[in-house]
Amino acid sequence: MAGAKSAPSRKAPEERIRARNEAKILKAAVELFSRKGFDGTRTAEIAEACGLPKANIYYYFSTKEAIYTTLIERLLQGWDKALEHITAERDPREALSAYVAAKLDYSRRHVVESRFFANEMLRGGGFLSRAQRRHMQEITRERVRVVEGWVRDGKIMPIDPNHFFIMLWATTQFYADFAEVAAVTLEKGRLSLTDYEAAQKTIVKVILSGCLPAS
Amino acid sequence: MAGAKSAPSRKAPEERIRARNEAKILKAAVELFSRKGFDGTRTAEIAEACGLPKANIYYYFSTKEAIYTTLIERLLQGWDKALEHITAERDPREALSAYVAAKLDYSRRHVVESRFFANEMLRGGGFLSRAQRRHMQEITRERVRVVEGWVRDGKIMPIDPNHFFIMLWATTQFYADFAEVAAVTLEKGRLSLTDYEAAQKTIVKVILSGCLPAS
DNA sequence: AGAAAAATTGACGATTTGGTCAAGAAATTC
DNA sequence: GAATTTCTTGACCAAATCGTCAATTTTTCT
User: Fold this and answer.
1) pTM for this structure?
2) Would you give per-residue pLDDT tens digits along chain B (215 residues)?
3) Distance from CA of A77 to the nearest CA of B (A)
4) Chain B residue with the nearest C-alpha to that of A186
5) Would you give the DSSP letter of residue A81?
6) Which part of the chain is the HTH tetR-type domain (chains A, B) (predicted)?
7) How far does B213 lie from chain A, in Å, by closest CA?
8) Given an 8 Å threshold on Cβ–Cβ distance, is B124 in contact with A180?
9) Nearest residue to D18, CA vs C1'?
């Protein structure tokens, strides 16, 4: 226990403080941005929320926008993780179940990040770079191709893959972005793990029965 | 042409100017609020957007919050219109089709209002009064009962009605709230009527095949 | 037409905003 | 342990913020 303390401090000596404080700032910022958007969030609020003086924040980030775009960049990396479940080789039943499960799991464990992203989309996505926009587009296109393949092979009913994906995305995303609405609908104070499991079951059931060919 | 001018001015002489200007203000405000939220929208922006001097806005609305809550109240009145299609007497197939169609139609024709509402929900719905919250809850509960009835009568598969409704709501709402995302997914600049029709077809198909008992 | 009420608006004020700066405190390096 | 780099922070600024007000113009009423 005593010897263990010096080991981690050796690990990254020149970046320890910076990494810790940047993390603090970003964590406080994503929470506020996710609720009030870019224009609605004051840098003083971020400072107070993470317990650092405002001037210190400007030591790590040159502007408010820099904080915001850093968050976008960081979150976009995990954005399409769930889509990796959708592959041409896989059986649609399995692939779609896995996707819904993964997406709901992400929604539950990263409510704030999901909401931040939703807020940026509501705004029209003006802070996204052209490259980031294209990335999203390409990722979607790939998966749309997979679904098109499934349709061609008669593995699922003939449906518009684009709108099909929007259905999936919208439904799963909803539980993070509009957690309060979902809670009201379910007549609960907040969503529990059980609620997410019930959601998963219902969504998978409807989606699968809704797109698989009559057996 | 000359005689027609005096007729409409007789109609509501004491409220004409007020009504017109309040409408102008609210229209400009809902647009801005829908993009940037309450905190992110400046009253000067609203003034500029509706072509009235800022001081004039404060003649009609005492505070920024007054504008915002007026909008909430006004929009909440149309919020549950689409749900009226869901009645116990009706056949699930018809009722659900009608609901999806109505909801998508509303999303298409009232993009701004839908997005405004979504923004308020993202915020956590803090500007909603307790009565308004209860209203939403009761409306939902009624329709959940209808679906429960359908399940009991074997008209649809056994599913959790709450999550089923969330699916419907999330999917249809998506096309208004995240129009930009939908447009990117569909690889278009903006959504056309055709896109909404394709969305409707896909959603209805999946939802109906997904919940109707095997025929 | 003239009085009364409603509507308009430029100028203003207290407060808050994003961001700067320079002086000092800690940590790191040699 | 001294030099150097990194980090911290109170004080500050120009611009923007919400909201006020009193003087004026327009509309309505009789």
Assistant:
1) 0.90
2) 333 333 333 334 557 899 999 999 999 999 999 999 999 999 999 999 999 999 999 999 999 999 999 999 999 988 888 899 999 999 999 999 999 999 999 999 999 999 999 999 999 999 999 999 999 999 999 999 999 999 999 999 999 999 999 999 999 999 999 988 899 889 898 999 999 999 999 999 999 999 888 75
3) 17
4) B162
5) G
6) 19-79
7) 10
8) yes
9) B43
